[in-house]
Specification:
The chain has about 140 residues and is of the alpha/beta class. It contains seven helices and five strands; from the N terminus they run βααβααβααβαβ. The chain is about 50% helix and about 15% strand. The radius of gyration is 14 Å and the shape is globular. InterPro entries: PIN-like_dom_sf (IPR029060), PIN_dom (IPR002716), PIN_Pae0151-like (IPR044153), TypeII_TA_RNase_PINc/VapC (IPR051619), VapC_family (IPR022907).
Length: about 140
């Protein structure tokens, strides 16, 4: 199965926090993990905040970003724009989050996220159809 993973899950591969164990289990599972290319910017933003706070060495951030392509296949943004605009406007979510949902819609799969706000926002929308519903990552 193909799963779209968002930045909230991917950062848990590198930062020990609630849900990290569940996020890391995805890495050893049978599923093909994919993510839109903008995820690298979101992940870099979060990880550099941890570097500035002294919670993560700078070189681990660089290694995480360099290794992203080995753990999750990148989806080019251009193929997602039209659907992401529809998701953002019609469901009222951010365009950043809409890109993950658009990717899942395009692959007829689901988003794995630790962002429960995204899960709640998408609930009851056409993008929450069975098999495409954003799935909250639990412990």
């Amino acid at each position: 199965m193909i799963l779209v993973v968002d930045a909230s899950v991917i950062v848990k591969w590198y930062i020990r926090e609630e849900g990290s164990d569940g996020a890391r289990r995805l890495l050893s599972g049978p599923d093909l993990l994919v993510t839109p290319t903008h995820a690298a910017a979101e992940i870099g933003h979060v990880l550099t905040r941890h570097v500035r706070a002294g919670a993560l060495p700078r070189d681990e951030t660089a290694a995480a970003l360099a290794g992203l392509s080995r753990t999750a296949s990148a989806i080019p943004l251009g193929v997602l724009h039209a659907e992401a605009i529809a998701v953002a406007v019609d469901a009222g979510t951010s365009f950043y989050d809409a890109l993950y949902v658009a990717a899942a819609a395009g692959w007829n799969t689901r988003v794995v996220t630790a962002d429960l706000h995204l899960v709640r926002t998408m609930s009851g929308t056409p993008w929450a159809a069975p098999g495409r519903r954003p799935h909250g990552l639990v412990g």
